[in-house]
Amino acid sequence: MELSTELETQIGRWRGYLQRHQAISPADLDELEDHLREQIADRRATGLDEEEAFLVAIKRIGNLDAVSREFAREHSDRLWKQLVLVPEEPDGGGAPSWRELAVVLALAVGAGVAVKAGLAWMGGDGALARNAGLLVFPFLAAYFAWKRRLTARVGAALLVPFAALAVVLNAYPFVPGGSTELLAALHAPVVLWLVVGVAYAGGRWRSDSRRMDFVRFTGELAIYYTLLALGGAVLVGLTFGALQAVGIDLEPVLEDWILPFAVPGALVVAAWLVEAKQNVVENIAPVLTRVFTPLTILMLVSLLAVLAASGGLIDVDRGLLILMDAILVLVLCLLLYSISARDSLAPPGLFDVLQLVLVGAALAVDAVMLTAMLTRIAEFGFSPNKIAALGLNLLLLVHLVRAAWLTVGFVRGRRPFAAVERWQTRYLPVYGAWAAAVVVVFPPVFGFI
Question: Where do the TM regions start and end (predicted)?
Answer without folding.
Answer: 101-122, 128-146, 158-176, 182-201, 222-245, 257-274, 295-314, 320-341, 353-375, 387-408, 428-446
